[in-house]
Amino acid sequence: MSTRSIGLEDELQGYLTDHSLREDPLLAELRAETAKMPQANMQIAPEQGQFMALLARIIGARRYLEVGTFTGYSALAVVQAMPAKGEATCLDVSEEWTTVAQRYWIRAGLADRIHLHLRPAAETLASLIRDGWSGDYDMAFIDADKTGYIDYYEACITLVRPGGLILVDNTLWDGEVVMPEEDQDEDTRAICAFNRHVHADQRVDVSLVPIGDGLTIARKRA
């Protein structure tokens, strides 16, 4: 719900980007094109993309799984940070949005390393598990329909290796997570349920970081 980090005033947001952001020109171009779309608020903040790329580098990620790809910014940022043989599996249901993504992946010379699946994510995740990919992914990112978050997370717990990371977007939901429950809509209630689920999950080490619209980072324990 936010293309910038939640809770920062304009001056501090500007300082953050001026003194931290090293955005690749192609990523900046993709972000600018996405900003013209009616769904522009679905774009992650550039500082979040850079943070995700840094995490991928830190853990030496070679296989990346993404649930919800939109116009491809997060996938491009992460795959650019991976080794030459690193690959991504991207899940989405929108041909319109991912057509934009594929144009930029081609321009970046990464299209052959990013495998896009256009069907409901739950179906693709189940197929990956059936096909023997359990424990093969180093990092996963969930940024899709909020009511599916717990199911997507549980699938990623299976598919990500011990020591790997599961990143989940929008977990502060523009601050609406602290609204009285009777005032929350379905998506807000789903995110609150997800946050409780992960907080109680002893299979992971977890931190909810106030970057972008709230980013939960879960490390799968051995």
N→C terminal distance: 33 Å
- Kindly report the spatial arrangement of strands forming the biggest sheet: 3-2-1-4-5-7-6
SSE string: HHHEHEHEHEHEHEE
Radius of gyration in whole Å, from Cα? 16 Å
Describe this protein's structure.
- By secondary structure, the protein is α/β, with parallel strands linked by helices.
- 41% of the residues lie in helices and 20% in strands.
- It contains eight helices and seven strands.
- The chain has helices at 10-20, 25-34, 46-59, 73-81, 95-107, 121-130, 149-159, 186-199; strands at residues 63-67, 87-92, 114-118, 137-142, 160-169, 204-209, 215-220.
- A seven-stranded mixed β-sheet has the order 3-2-1-4-5-7-6, sandwiched between helices.
- Helix 5 (95-107) links the parallel strand 2 (87-92) and strand 3 (114-118).
- Helix 3 (46-59) runs parallel beside helix 4 and helix 6 (121-130) runs parallel beside helix 7 (149-159).
- It is globular, with a radius of gyration of 16 Å.
- It starts with 9 loop residues before the first helix and ends with a strand.
- 40% of the residues are buried.
Write out key terms for the chains shown.
222 residues, alpha/beta, 7-stranded mixed sheet, 8 helices, 41% helix, globular
Quick recap:
The protein has 222 residues and is an alpha/beta fold.
Task: Map the helices and strands.
Layout: H1 10-20, H2 25-34, H3 46-59, E1 63-67, H4 73-81, E2 87-92, H5 95-107, E3 114-118, H6 121-130, E4 137-142, H7 149-159, E5 160-169, H8 186-199, E6 204-209, E7 215-220
Parallel strand pairs: 1-2, 1-4, 2-3, 4-5
Antiparallel strand pairs: 5-7, 6-7
Helix pairs in contact: 3-4, 6-7
